[in-house]
Amino acid sequence: MLESYSMVERDGLLLYPEEIKERFLATGPLPFRDGTRASPEEIWEFMTDEGPRRFPYMFTSNPNSPQRLPYYVDLIGSIKLYYMIISRRFRVEKMRKLGKPLVLVQGGQPLEPYYAADALPLRPGDMTELACYYVAEGLDIRNKDWKKIDIREEGSRTVSMEACHQITTHAAIRNNVVPVDLVAPYTRVRCSDATFLVESHRDSSRKVDCFLVDYPTNYAPDKTWAVEYVAENIRQLIARIDAISGKTTTADDFRRQIGAYNRVRRLARETIEVWRAAPVPPASSVLVYRILALGKDCDGDPVAAEHVLTQLRDEVRERTAVPLKGGELAERPARIFKCGSCIAINFHALDRAGGALVSADDWWSDISTPDVEEEGDIFANYARTTLSAPYDLPTEDRAAWIVDQVRMSRAEGLIFGYQWGCNFQSAVARMVCDIVQKETDIPATTLSLDELGRGESTEQTQNRIAAFVEMLSYAA
Fold first, then answer.
1. Hey, is 443 helix, strand or coil?
2. Each residue's pLDDT tens digit, 322-358
3. Alpha-carbon span 240 to 255, nearest angstrom
4. How far apart are CA 118 and CA 245, in angstroms?
5. Is there a contact between 259 and 240 (Cβ–Cβ < 8 Å)?
6. pTM of the predicted model as reported, rounded to 2 decimal places
């Protein structure tokens, strides 16, 4: 699909144009991990009728919404991508009825162990969206935000006013808004409050099982003790999930899931490598982030993720061969590399200001690691690979990796964002920016936000992004 089609705006909503319907229907059904398939006709009907009615905050035309659909359809595979995102809440409900445990994960960890144990892993943002399914269905983006703020404020009062605003998810669990079976994140350094927020459930009136997958920091990835330690933690995690579901997960189950995840990561790598090597970015910046997220988390379904990423990779190759730029992008956008955890910023605002995202260190770190070796001790192999993730290395090593990625992506500016309450990312942001500036001579800026989970980004944030991009334009 070489054209970029403008979305139709009606009553404050963005709707897919009828002229792309036949092309979309020709893409075939979307397969899922439970063996079912969604026909393209079913997906089209949902994304043009039921979805906008039930979840208008996803289809809003509000330019201040970082979560909204792009104004242009550059990649027809993005329709299935957004269908996976929006329909995930229904698939979670369906699979929970079949006895699959719902697990809150946090801290950026890979998800193979959870999928291998046939669980439903959700990160805080995904869990908050599930909460909104119960309390904000049918609301516009602003009223949805008020619902989420109510949950967050109650959590802040109950647990801590100083906690990261991922407290929203934990408050929704404590108050039984979302039916979670297990809270089980990794203690990775990218999230300073992961351990604290898990432990906060110990005094909750709603008793929920908790388990921390311990993850060593400031280590050498090739240390034998570190590999053995993480491998044992993964065994315990899977056993903990099995105790809830009554299932017995074997090493071969884990091996098969790792094989599936290797394929997904390879597809995401191939797509992003083609994207950032192109003379002009082929689609809206938000799709870079969505593709990275799909390659890392699979939006709840590795089987569906592989199908969608295959289609997106092929479309990106087609557009970059011409080359064609995304419909929302400037003729010569400033290329931006984004750093920091839990930061999506408003990529639509970035495009509007004349910029374009080329990569993001948190998601790209885990996608770009070598494939997990599928022969031999699968737990040790998995531990060895996840321990090599550059994002979780000591800060100077992480910064050195970012320097390499900045050069390979030909980025012209770096934005390191961090959320209010995140002690770790706020502490290292300036150091990383200084190292990148020294080694590459590109401008780098830090961006402090208080927008975690919000459907509208603030004018202050958008102005700072626009000013940074404008500075890059003057430099060019």
1. coil
2. 999 999 999 999 999 999 888 778 899 999 999 999 9
3. 18
4. 9
5. no
6. 0.94
